[in-house]
Design goal:
alpha/beta
């Protein structure tokens, strides 16, 4: 396999930055829903859980979301939405997984109680995991008002090779060095969530 030479810091071509930013935002905004799987068992479990909450007179937390990362049929790690850190459940579950293992290829599915937002879907696609998502609907929520891309998932070694190649190609004409692409891309996606 031919490896593209690493770019060195050079003069940044400011006029090309809007094009790179636009490509990243378009990819994130136009996430297709056909790659995720509807999990009807999960829908039934959530419906039963909601019925029980009503019986127990427990308030339903609209922001609650849980994600589980599986290897085969076994839950390896799980995560919940962290409103203090603005990290979504699926990303928290993946951060926990990376804390235990560095190879994402053993992940068989990611089960999420709420469909991923477009920003999370972008990260899942970059990690090569979007097609392993199982959730309740095939509709991605829009970008959310507060969203953070966890530092542990900003490692190009974790990215699916074809997706990382595509991202790097968006920055070819910008003069931005390879080590600056990820922070720029993170800033672009996180700024989209602020709109």
């Amino acid at each position: 396999m031919f490896a593209r030479p690493k770019r060195k810091a050079a003069t940044i071509n400011i006029s090309e930055l809007p094009s790179a930013k636009g490509s990243i935002l378009a990819e994130c905004t136009n996430m297709h829903t056909s790659l995720i799987t509807i999990d009807y068992d999960l829908i039934r479990e959530l419906a039963e859980s909601k019925k029980q909450k009503v019986k127990d007179d427990d308030s339903d937390n609209e922001k609650y979301c849980k994600a589980e990362v599986f290897e085969g049929d076994t839950v390896s790690t799980s995560g919940e939405y962290d409103s203090n850190a603005s990290i979504h459940a699926e990303l928290n579950a993946l951060v926990s997984y990376i804390g235990l293992k560095s190879d994402l290829s053993n992940i068989s599915k990611i089960r999420i109680t709420s469909p991923p937002c477009k920003s999370c879907a972008f990260v899942l696609k970059l990690l090569g995991l979007l097609d392993k998502v199982q959730t309740t609907k095939q509709i991605y929520k829009e970008h959310t008002g507060s969203w953070v891309w966890p530092q542990a998932l900003q490692n190009s070694q974790l990215f699916y090779a074809e997706q990382w190649k595509w991202v790097r190609e968006q920055f070819d004409k910008t003069g931005i060095a390879d080590e600056e692409i990820i922070p720029y891309m993170v800033a672009v996606i996180q700024s989209k969530c602020a709109f």
